[in-house]
Specification:
mainly alpha; flat
Amino acid sequence: MNFLLIIFYCFAALMVLSTLVTLFTRNVLYAAFSLIATFFGVAVLYLFAGADFVAITQILVYIGGILVLIIFGIMLTHRISGQPVVTKVHNQILGVLIGIGLFGVLAYGILQANLDHLPWIETATATGKIIQESTVQPLGVLLMSRYIFPFELAALLLLVALIGAAFIAKGRGSGEQ
């Protein structure tokens, strides 16, 4: 068995195990931490698929931004109430059912896909090494040249959303509605 395939299966197993922990734990903080491992595993699998830009974006946006925000929110909520944040059993059962359904759909899609033409599999079987060009530089050049207007527009919209969220939070904190 190829060393790259072993690494691939290790990260796939990490993703599956951390997803199961996310599904079956009742502590929301533990679920958020296991979701970090799941997102990291997804980023590594993106690297194996030859999508390094998407992998870096996965790490920066999901792990670096959204999940850290969720963890801070859970930790601050836990400190205010003094009670541990746990989910109810019927919510957990619903999450397990949705997770099993999603797993079935994804498993069906994976079984129907032709994975023999992925760049890392073709290169690894032919030479035993992965030789790929980065996708980050061409995407960066496109974002900063042809798509600069939509890129700046998205940045402006995010800034407006941030200012609006701060304004709403300020109004609620001072007793105003």
